[in-house]
Amino acid sequence: MKKVLIPLILFFVSTANATQDKAALVDAVLKQSSIEISIMNMPAQLSQLPAMMPMEAQQKQVLMDDVVATIMNDFNEVEVFNAVKQHFVQQGDSDKLRLVLNWLNSPEGREITQVEILAQQIDPLAMQQYIMAFTPEALGRRKMALFSDLVAASEMNEMMFKMMEKFMPAMMKGVVEIDKALGQNRISDPVEFERTFRKQITMMRDQLGPMLEMQMVATFSYMFRDASDPSLEAYSEFLASEAGQHYMALSVDSILEYGVDWMEHMLTGMAKVIVANSVNE
Fold first, then answer.
1. Smallest Cα–Cα separation from 161: which of 192, 198, 215?
2. Higher pLDDT residue, 80 or 260?
C-alpha cells in the first residue's frame, strides 16, 4: 500500500509545485506587461459607447453620465485582472511564457511596454482625426513598412473579427433591448437581424480587409509614434514568433472569456437606463 501511495503523493506534490511555479511566472509576465494598465483603463474606453448611440445630443449626454456611473459601480478591475491571470495559468505554456518574459525584460520590450502604457492616455478624438487624414505618403516608406509588418505580425484584423463574433450574441441581445427601450422598433425580427449582421461581418472580412488593414496601420502609427525603429522591428519579430502568438492569444481569449457575460449585462443596463430616462422626461 505504501509503495502505491508514495508515487501518488510525489505526483500531487510535483503538480502543486509546477502550478505554483507557473503562477509565479504568470505574475511576472503580467507585472512586466501593459495588461494590468489596460484593464484599469477599460472603464474609460467603455464609457465612450453611448457616443455611438442613435440619440439626440442632450439625451446622449444624460445617458453617458448614467452609463459612466453604472460602469464605475459594476466594473471590477481586480476581478477582471484575476480572471485574466487564471486564464494565463490554466492555458499558458510555461516555456513560451518564459520567452515572453524575456522579451518584456529586454530593452526593446521595456520601451514598447512604456509606449503602450502611455497610449492609454491618448485622446480618442485626436486619434480618430489622425486616422481619417492618414496617408502612406505622409508616413514615409520606412515607417510604412515597419507598421505594416507590425500589423501583419499581430494579426490584429483577424483578432478584431474574432472578438466581434464572440461578442455578437450578447451584443445582439443588448442592441434589441436598447432598440425597444428607445421606442424605435427598427428590429422586428431579432433572428434575421443577427443573420444579416453576420453576413455583413463576412463581407467586411472578404471585401474590406485591405482597408481595415490600412486603418490598423494608421492606428499603430499613432499609438507607437514615439517608439524607435529598432524596437518596432523587434516587436514585429516577437509577435510573429510562437511565443508572441501565444501571448496575444492568451491576452485576447482571457478578455473574451470574461467579457461576454459582462458585455450583455452592461448593454442590458443601458437599456434600463434609457427606459428610466424616458419615464422621467
1. 198
2. 80
